[in-house]
Amino acid sequence: MSEILLRLWRESLGVADAGPDDDFFELGGDSLVATQLVARLREELGVAVTLLTVFENPTVAELALELEPAVVTP
């Protein structure tokens, strides 16, 4: 799942070299980009992600830990 999150993170931010421990907001993310990211996460992972979840878990590594229990993998 971290790979999917990282891809969506990079695409949303337009930053090709973002890593799992890079902070979303330090890379230029804001509430508008976070809203777009939340929509993509819901679409691709099928989980109920909120803006608050992104704000409280601003790295891919943190967000992956938060979302992992909710994601059902085939």
TrEMBL record:
The entry's keywords: Phosphopantetheine, Phosphoprotein
One GO CC term on file: cytoplasm
BP term (GO), one: amino acid activation for nonribosomal peptide biosynthetic process
Top-level lineage group: Bacteria
One term of GO molecular function: phosphopantetheine binding
Coiled coil: none
Named cofactor requirement(s): pantetheine 4'-phosphate
Ranges of residues in domain Carrier: 1-71
Cross-referenced PANTHER family: FATTY ACID SYNTHASE, NONRIBOSOMAL PEPTIDE SYNTHETASE
Protein's UniProt name: Acyl carrier protein
